[in-house]
Design a protein that fits this description.
A: TIM Barrel; B: 197 residues; alpha/beta; 6 helices; globular
Chain lengths: 251, 197
């Protein structure tokens, strides 16, 4: 049976992980490669690296990081952040990334999704969507939720699927950072409307939130950052509880 | 031992090269027919779309080289699919090494299948030391139908072939290079195969 995936997300700036990461047993918690290897060992199913650098050298730094991760880590990983062209994707995949995620660049230039999907295959193209519920309507936002667009979440998600995305990473800006749980009502609608996998993101605070997003939100995977980085939730404990509640996971 | 990874422009070869390196071996990426023929083990990777991948193979003449190889050959993901008789994707005739057809998952499941699923009914030296119902990482929209050459199966809406073998040719639908310890074991088993004719 295909299992539900647990995905730690690492924010990367200039080749280093950001946010204080509380891993006492790591020599260098700022080293994404070491952290990634640790997560792979403890049972993470996949990893996401989100690059938030804004320097001139960012492309080169990220490509080098991908190469170093691929050398050490034996589970799949996705790379996102500032990817806007076929050339960007080509080097990341060549260096060993399994998937790339595009966000703002897909909103600005939706044809990019078609181009990437045709060239590299749908299976390695994740479209990340940040959305916020405003007066009852889910509106797609850019720049980490700061800039609203005209797009409706569900319409955009449908379009993204039709253009050839292999999966959708949906972050609810209403839930992100709250630790109150995932946006399960919207997730459920996405999961039922579309026929590609949906990754839930934003709001993880405890183990029950993961149970709920798989059961109520019908998510195929759940992504979180701080609860893992600060060891508020250990992946083996999380997976055991999911299994106990009848959710298929890889243990 | 000389390990050749067939380089025909198909993605994510780097990860396979690294996985081989983690096992203590070195692999070369090559599209040179002589180098491929003289290798002890050949890995035939593949990510992407079937008809364009087949076009690339034909343009280098590798479509003729691969079926003639005598050493152990491992097709991974699309590589395995291209070794079959026919791929529905892009209406593509394959290399016809395996007597099997490749078809698309229907709409009762999400397509592509992305994630960790189980392999069972393991019946090959490829799986020595690997548990029944072990989890492996899969990413694909098309699958190989069950056939006589199937050496393990996976369930996703249908029961399908997740690994296949005929003579010196092996194919796996999953990515051993991304399947944690189980994947490493399977890759190691392949690299340690003795050639039996």
């Amino acid at each position: 049976m295909l299992t539900k995936r647990i995905i730690p997300c690492l924010d990367i700036k200039n080749g280093r992980t950001v946010k204080g990461i509380n891993f006492v047993d790591l020599r260098d918690a700022g080293d994404p490669v070491e952290l990634a290897a640790k997560y792979a060992e403890t049972g993470a199913d996949e990893l996401v690296f989100l690059d938030i650098s804004a320097t001139e050298e960012r492309r080169k730094t990220l490509a080098n990081l991908v190469l170093r991760v691929a050398e050490k880590v034996n589970i799949p990983f996705t790379v996102g952040g500032g990817i806007s062209s076929v050339e960007d994707v080509d080097i990341l995949l060549k260096n060993g990334a399994d998937k790339v995620s595009v966000n703002s660049s897909a909103v600005k230039n939706p044809d990019l999704i078609n181009e990437l999907s045709q060239k590299f295959g749908a299976q390695c193209i994740t479209v990340a969507i940040d959305a916020k519920q405003v007066n009852g309507q889910w509106i797609v936002h850019l720049v980490g939720g700061k800039v609203p667009t005209e797009l409706d979440l569900f319409e955009w998600a449908k379009e993204v699927e039709q253009r050839g995305a292999g999966e959708i990473l949906f972050t609810s800006m209403n839930n992100d950072g709250t630790k109150d749980g995932f946006a399960n009502i919207a997730l459920k609608k996405l999961s039922e409307d579309l026929n590609i996998p949906i990754i839930a993101s934003g709001g993880a605070g405890n183990i029950q939130h993961f149970v709920d997003t798989f059961k109520e939100g019908k998510a195929d995977a759940a992504l979180a950052a701080s609860v893992f980085h600060f060891k508020e939730i250990e992946i083996p404990d999380l997976k055991k509880e999911l299994a106990d509640q009848g959710i298929p996971v890889r243990i | 031992m000389k390990i050749a990874i067939i380089d025909y422009g198909a993605g994510n070869i780097q990860s396979i090269k690294f996985a081989v390196k983690r096992l203590g071996f070195e692999a070369v990426l090559t599209d040179d027919a002589e180098e491929i023929k003289s290798a002890d083990k050949v890995i035939f990777p593949g990510v992407g779309e079937a008809s364009s991948a087949m076009k690339m193979l034909k343009s280098t003449g590798l479509d003729k080289v691969i079926p003639q190889l005598k050493q152990p050959v491992l097709g991974i993901c699309l590589g395995m699919q291209l070794m079959c008789e026919y791929c529905e994707e892009g209406d593509t005739p394959g290399l016809s090494i395996f007597d099997a057809k490749v078809v698309k998952f229907d709409n009762t499941v999400k397509v592509p299948q992305i994630g960790w699923n189980q392999i069972y009914d393991l019946r090959s030296d490829l799986f020595e030391g690997v548990n029944e119902k072990e989890y492996v990482y899969l990413v694909h929209s098309f699958y190989v139908k069950e056939c006589e050459e199937t050496i393990c199966s996976t369930q996703y809406g249908v029961e399908y072939t997740s690994a296949i073998k005929k003579n010196n040719f092996y194919g796996v639908q999953f990515h051993p290079e991304k399947s944690s310890k189980a994947g490493e074991k399977i890759l190691e088993n392949f690299l340690k195969l003795e050639l039996r004719s």
